[in-house]
Amino acid sequence: MRNKVLTAVLAAMVAAILLVSCGGDEDSGLLRVAVAQEPVSLDVMITSSVSGRNIAVGNVYERLFEMDGDTIRPVLATGYELSSSGCDLRIGIRSGVSFHDGTLLDPEDAAASLNRWLRSYKGASSITGDASFSVEGDGIVISSTSSLAMLPVMLASSPQAAVIYPGEAIASAADGMPVVDAPGTGPYRVEEWISGSSILLSAFDGYWGDKPSIDRISYEFVPDPVIRRLGLESGQYDFIDNVLSDDIPALEKVPGIELHQGDENGSIVLVFNKKEGISTDVFFRRAVSLLIDREELMRACYGSYGYSVRSAYMDGKDGIWSVNPDLDPYGMENREEGLALLQDSYDGTTVRILSSNLTDLDRIAVALSSELEQCGINTELIILDWASFMEQRGNPSSWDIYVSATGSVPLPLEKGYLFSDSPGGFDDPSSSSIIRALSTSESMEEAASLWQIAQIRLWEYVPVIVPGHYSTVYASRSISGIDLSDGFHFRDAVML
Q: Which of 94, 113, 108 is nearest to 182 (CA)?
């Protein structure tokens, strides 16, 4: 009864909003998108925020390359050449491209941007070492003592996106601090950002490529999934992200609404604190991995839809990164063995479980706490909003396990939790040496062979637990041509 009353109240709220926002003629050139999370910054080079990438990458800021399936496609680049040794990479830079302030893109902008990216993104510097980009004619070059074969894929796909800013904007930003209000080269520019409310993008008339058919996109921050759903049903929103599994049956019955669910596009990760506290003990981490019911954790968040239960770090059941999950010695629930390990590794310490309340990740934290308590492990739940969670996880003295969701990436090197400077740290010499070798592989096939070894070693070391993988569900009405290959984008979309 309580849920029915709450739904009715929320429906009335949405109706009231509609009376205010839709009182005049409908703006056919405005696409309204309800998103669960407001990005902390649109500087996608120093943050891996999924919401920031969905809004900014490809719309406001562009990479030199992007992935088109398994193919690297030039965007602001004209192409690239890798030397026969694999140690020298040259990238041609497209001419005649304007930033939103009217200045022209040149190789100096590209070199400055990518050198900042190398300083910001550990996955990239693991490939390049101390090497940096420099200008050569109408392009940029980088030379290293080891193979750079993995670098073009990372340039096209890294979660900390290798977008191009004006060189002046790079110079004005202190190390580690975000670039603010920098113009991009994309088909849209930021027209307005109202903190706590929305970001409005408008089409850039001077765009170098094909102009999008949608004139303006309003990304509206709506953390409550019920309000997102009711807004879509009423016509207030044209697209909503992170549809809850509980809402799928209802939305399937609404005429004109289309649900979108792709292949695995991310994983749930339980990250252990390996810098201090109870989780520094590998036997405790192994015990936890054996004690949890992975199906129960995933069901707590996703219900009956949109997930698979596998402990592999890479998403997708097939492909070159696939490793047989039966090789994971701690990948299935085994209470007897887990409790035996617990006797020698647990001293009654309260295990602090940190999570944000974003997209129901806190449900996984609650389920994890319940399962550990049943096994005799004392727990404390710390549930925060997204911004507070991001700040808290950087303090290793305040948590022991944190719950997070990571997006799908084409390279294991783009899994941030595999580096020593990640929240929770990473300090296993054996795994690190394999990952370093992977970063300088001369081919994808060689890298995939090394990953087979690395994944098995990581399963034994248990820096994180991947209980399963998810497929985000979106919903829309009266839109065609939405690109769901990497998040969601509307560059080629048409409002019907």
A: 113
List the one residue out of 416, 412, 423 whose CA is nearest residue 456.
412
CB atoms within 10 A of CB 84: 6
Separation of alpha carbons 154 and 57, rounded Å: 15
Q: Which amino acid is at 125?
A: S
479 touches 238 (CB < 8 A) = yes
Tokens, residue 32: 């309204």
CA distance 415 to 408: 9
Contact predicate 73/85, CB 8 Å: no
In this prediction, residue 11 carries a pLDDT of 46
Do 73 and 209 meet the contact criterion of CB atoms below 8 Å apart? no
Task: Judge whether 219 and 30 are in contact, CB under 8 Å.
Answer: no
240 vs 221: CA distance, rounded Å: 10
Phi then psi for 435, rounded to 5 degrees? -65, -40
The encoded tokens of residue 81 equal 């050449």
Q: What is the pLDDT of residues 204-258, one digit of tens each?
A: 999 999 999 999 999 999 999 899 999 999 999 999 998 888 888 889 999 999 9
How far, in Å, CA of 153 to CA of 67, rounded?
8
Would you state the torsion angle of the CA atoms of residues 32, 36, 39, 45, taken in this order, to the nearest 10 degrees?
-90
Q: Which residues contact 192 (CB under 8 A, 6 or more apart)?
A: 198, 199, 200
Residue ranges and CATH numbers for the domains of the chain are 27-58+186-262+473-495 (3.40.190.10), 65-172 (3.90.76.10), 266-470 (3.10.105.10)
280 or 19, greater pLDDT: 280
Q: Average pLDDT, whole number, for the chain?
A: 90
Q: Answer for the pair 316, 252: CB distance below 8 angstroms, yes or no.
A: no
Give Rg (Cα) of the chain: 23
Q: What are phi and psi of 486, to 5 degrees?
A: -150, 85
CA distance linking residue 132 with residue 208, whole number of Å: 28
C-alpha 150/C-alpha 449 separation (Å) is 14
Using 50, 70 and 90 to split pLDDT, how confident is the model at 431?
confident
- Strand 30-35 and strand 239-240: pairing? parallel
Q: For residues 63 and 162, is the Cβ–Cβ distance under 8 A?
A: yes
Q: What is the DSSP letter of 280?
A: G
Q: Helices 335-345 and 282-291, interaxial angle, to 10°?
A: 150
C-alpha distances in Å from residue 267, one per residue of 94, 213, 225, 289: 36, 33, 20, 16
Lookup: tokens for 476: 């829309």
401 near 352, Cβ under 8 Å? yes
pLDDT at 27: 57
CA distance 354 to 493: 38
Residue 9 pLDDT level (bands cut at 50, 70, 90)? very low
Q: How far is CA 74 from CA 135, 161, 313, in A?
A: 18, 15, 28
Q: Is residue 407 a contact partner of residue 160, using CB atoms and an 8 Å limit?
A: no
